[in-house]
């Protein structure tokens, strides 16, 4: 038994391990090639987050999904590169919106070069992803376009907030299905599709990817509150400081509204105040880490991971299926 990637995913078959490791190595090379420019500064900025590393969660899923068809099919690695480039491009834009200082343990592009360079670099990376995608055929272009529309829609819905009468938690989960689930679903779909898997298998893996993607984001929500920067690779409480309503905060607000406990109402008031002040920010983090809302968010993460696991039931048993099931456990483990 060996482990693959930062998730410490157990791979119990040498052939599967070799395929996955070779695929991820090829993706890494493809990411560097795709972010090269004739302008050295653009290359430096575009490769900034590539070289910072990352979990390569989406390419890993593409490689595993491809095991349900021909894992050596030529479109698999380029498709994985496209999905990861799209993800990286959104990170450049997200950090501008969030005014983040740190990403993947290094200075964010916006803090290093300014917002304009960060936004334009994200656009450049999107363009390179589109160039590769064009060679994968019109169906792949359509799938990616639909996913990107859902991703952007999710971001807009998050910015707009829930409408009158719309439950904030349900609204948030809808946002997560678009912002995160859509692209993780494409990672799985491309892997199976490019490998020539049966359409029923492609559909199952697509559903699995979306549900796992939501669980993955919910785990990130927990990490934003519960972890330090060494664990998460970014500044703790970034979403909190920017007033982004992540799941633990939404549960806190719901509990405060339902029960009216003075300590909960006081914490909500603290969160609604100016968290640019480091002392207030630290106090908010400390109190949220001790609040039952954080544990409730952990339980939600587990539930979504279990839904992803159940989706895989119709697939034939094998090492690839076992690895996908183990990823559900790994996502839960990230949330503690």
Task: List key phrases describing it.
mainly alpha; two-stranded antiparallel ribbon; two-stranded antiparallel sheet; 3% strand; 336 residues; single chain
The Cα radius of gyration reads: 20 Å
Strand arrangement in the largest pleated sheet: 1-2
Distance between the termini: 24 Å
The average pLDDT value, as a whole number, equals: 91
Q: Helicity, in percent?
A: over 70%
**Structural class by sheet pairing and helices:** mainly alpha
Global outline: globular
Please tally the helical runs, counting DSSP H or I stretches of 4 or more residues: 17
Query: Low-confidence parts, pLDDT < 50 over ≥5 residues?
Result: none
Largest sheet: 2 strands, antiparallel
Give the total of beta strands.
4
Q: What order do the helices and strands follow?
A: EEHHHHHEEHHHHHHHHHHHH
Strand content: under 5%
Please describe what this structure looks like:
This protein is mainly α and 336 residues long. Helices cover 74% and strands 3% of the residues. The protein is built from 17 helices and 4 strands. The strands form 2 sheets. It has a two-stranded antiparallel ribbon. β1 (2-4) and β2 (9-11) form a beta hairpin. α1 packs across α4 (57-65) and α5 (76-98) runs antiparallel to α7. The protein is globular and about 60 Å long. The two termini are 24 Å apart.
């Amino acid at each position: 038994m060996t482990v693959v990637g930062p998730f410490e995913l157990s791979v119990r078959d040498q052939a599967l391990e070799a395929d996955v490791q070779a695929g991820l190595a090829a993706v890494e090379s493809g990411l560097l090639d795709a972010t090269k420019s004739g302008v050295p500064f653009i290359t430096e900025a575009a490769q900034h987050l590539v070289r910072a590393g990352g979990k390569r969660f989406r390419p890993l899923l593409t490689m595993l999904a491809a095991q349900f068809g021909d894992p050596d099919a030529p479109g698999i690695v380029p498709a994985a590169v496209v999905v990861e480039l799209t993800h990286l491009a959104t990170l450049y834009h997200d950090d501008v919106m969030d005014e983040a200082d740190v990403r993947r343990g290094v200075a964010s592009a916006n803090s290093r070069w300014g917002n304009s360079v960060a936004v334009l670099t994200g656009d450049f990376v999107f363009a390179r992803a589109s160039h590769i995608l064009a060679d994968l055929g019109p169906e792949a272009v359509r799938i990616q376009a639909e996913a990107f529309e859902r991703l952007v829609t999710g971001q807009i819905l998050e910015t707009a907030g829930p409408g009158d009468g719309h439950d904030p938690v349900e609204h948030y989960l809808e946002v997560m299905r678009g912002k995160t689930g859509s692209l993780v679903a494409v990672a799985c779909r491309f892997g199976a599709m490019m490998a020539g898997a049966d359409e029923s298998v492609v559909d199952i893996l697509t559903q699995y990817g979306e549900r796992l993607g939501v669980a993955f984001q919910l785990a990130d929500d927990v990490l934003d509150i519960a972890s330090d920067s060494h664990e998460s690779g970014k500044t703790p409480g970034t979403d909190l400081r920017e007033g982004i309503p992540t799941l633990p905060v939404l549960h806190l607000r719901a509990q405060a509204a339902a029960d009216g406990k003075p300590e909960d109402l006081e914490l909500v008031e603290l969160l609604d105040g100016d968290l640019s002040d480091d002392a207030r920010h630290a106090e908010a983090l400390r109190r949220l880490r001790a609040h039952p809302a954080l544990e409730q968010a952990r339980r939600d993460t587990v539930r979504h991971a279990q839904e992803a696991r159940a989706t895989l039931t119709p697939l034939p048993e094998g090492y690839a299926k076992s690895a996908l099931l183990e990823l559900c456990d790994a996502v839960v483990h990230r949330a503690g």
